[in-house]
Write a structure and sequence with these properties.
- With 379 residues, the chain is α/β, with parallel strands linked by helices.
- 44% of the residues lie in helices and 16% in strands.
- It folds into two domains: 123 residues, Alpha-Beta Complex (Aspartate Aminotransferase, domain 1), CATH 3.90.1150.10; 241 residues, Type I PLP-dependent aspartate aminotransferase-like (Major domain) (Aspartate Aminotransferase, domain 2).
- It is built from 14 helices and 15 strands.
- A hairpin with a 4-residue loop joins strand 6 and strand 7.
- Helix 2 packs across helix 10, helix 11 packs parallel to helix 13 and helix 11 packs antiparallel against helix 14.
- The longest helix is centred in the last third of the chain and has 21 residues.
- Bound molecules: 4'-deoxy-4'-aminopyridoxal-5'-phosphate.
Length: 379
């Protein structure tokens, strides 16, 4: 049975990337590695759409989220966090762990944040040093309006930090053009590389905060990482195999063209939404993202049973809800190394599994609606 990973990370790997990851290790201080690292640095700048250096760390995405907090802030600093899901809450939790004064904007899970609320908070308290949000709040499938948020934050002393761990490469985020100060990304999502690398870009405004920040750090020292990276080096032993794998995926992305990849994600997302709606299901998210679709579970359908059926019988792996959405939604990702027929498999296995569980569906309706989008025949 073919296995299809329709999960919002880690995602499947193209064969070239798997092969690169399996090769013999090269030494991280060798000329050969320096060349690889340089290519990866350049490739990431292009994905982040920034002229700033993109720092590369060996860790999962959360590692760099914590690194951003300790490099930008000082004890008792005030931060503003958009809390519209599990990952928004993570920013608040990390901030609180380091003794920061965290103000949260609570957004109902599944809804977008109103940028005016951010403006209100920032004008109420000019001491707020940074605003933390997501590009895609993966737990609810919602994409936030970062362009509008950036326009507001730019006019203040605060810096804007966007966790684009899931969205980067799948959703439009021109960091420099929109004036996003800090962007965090990771290897295991749209970048089609294994988990284990995370990235961050910083604007001049953000580097100024780094200069003033006094929270303790050692492994996560951005200034040291920047100094070393300019010579194609890292302060400590990097995950060499992952960097070699990432070089291959960045090459593939460049060949295909980043805009085409964004369009590809948009098309797969639309097909998924249309397929799901045709089955009589509801989309959970107010502003559905192009990387993952969150779907309300119909009454009487048990999440774990549905997902197990899709996985064990048809080889399709999707995810359920997180936190308070556990058992309430399922999430089908269309992220990274996923093609049109993977989506067809996702919709087809969903309708077959639902039907087997006694939910009334007209077999083929979801598939038909998705096919219309994917074949370009939808008016
Ligand atoms: N933020 C977002 C938006 C995410 O989607 C994820 C991973 N699903 C994380 C943070 C955490 O990343 P990691 O598991 O790589 O630490």
């Amino acid at each position: 049975m073919n296995r299809r990973l329709l999960t919002p990370g880690p995602t499947s790997l193209p064969p070239q990337v798997r092969i690169a990851a399996a090769k013999e290790i090269i030494h991280h201080r060798s000329d050969e590695f320096l060349k690889v690292f340089q290519e990866v640095r350049e490739g990431l700048k292009s994905i982040f759409q920034t002229r700033n250096e993109v720092l590369i760390f060996t860790c999962s995405g959360t590692g760099v989220m914590e690194a951003v907090i300790v490099n930008l802030l000082s004890p008792k600093d005030k931060i503003l966090v958009i809390k519209g899901g599990k990952f928004g809450e993570r920013w608040a939790d990390i901030g609180a762990s380091f003794g920061l004064q965290v103000t949260g904007i609570d957004v109902e899970w599944g809804r977008v944040v109103d940028p005016n609320l951010i403006e209100k908070e920032l004008s109420r308290d000019s001491q707020i040093k940074a605003v933390f949000t997501q590009l895609v709040e993966t737990s609810t499938g919602v994409v936030y309006d970062i362009k509008s948020i950036a326009r507001i934050v730019k006019e203040t002393e605060a810096v804007l930090v966007v966790d684009a761990i899931s969205g980067l490469g799948g959703e439009y985020l021109p960091a420099d053009e929109w004036g996003v100060d800090v962007v965090v990304g990771a290897s295991q999502k749209a970048l089609m590389a294994p988990p284990g690398l995370a990235f961050v870009s910083l604007s001049d405004k953000a580097w100024k905060l780094v200069e003033e920040s006094t929270l303790p750090r050692y492994y996560w020292n951005f200034k040291e990482a920047l100094r070393m990276q300019k010579n194609n080096q890292t302060p400590f032993t990097p995950a060499v195999s992952l960097i070699c794998a990432l070089r291959e995926s960045l090459k593939l992305i460049k060949e295909k063209g980043e805009d085409n990849i964004l369009k590809h994600h948009a098309r797969l997302a639309e097909a998924t939404r249309k397929g799901v709606l045709a089955l009589g299901l509801k989309i959970f998210s107010e502003a559905p993202s192009n990387i993952v679709t969150a779907i309300e579970l119909p009454l009487g359908i048990e999440d774990k049973k549905l997902r197990a059926l899709m996985r064990d019988r048809y080889g399709v792996e999707i995810t359920g809800g997180q936190g308070k959405l556990k058992g309430k939604i399922i999430r089908i990702a269309h992220l990274g190394w996923v093609d049109a027929l993977d989506i067809m498999a996702g919709i087809s296995s969903l309708e077959m599994a639902l039907s087997q569980m006694g939910f009334k569906v007209n077999l083929g309706e979801g598939v038909k609606a998705a096919e219309k989008v994917l074949s370009g025949s939808e008016e």
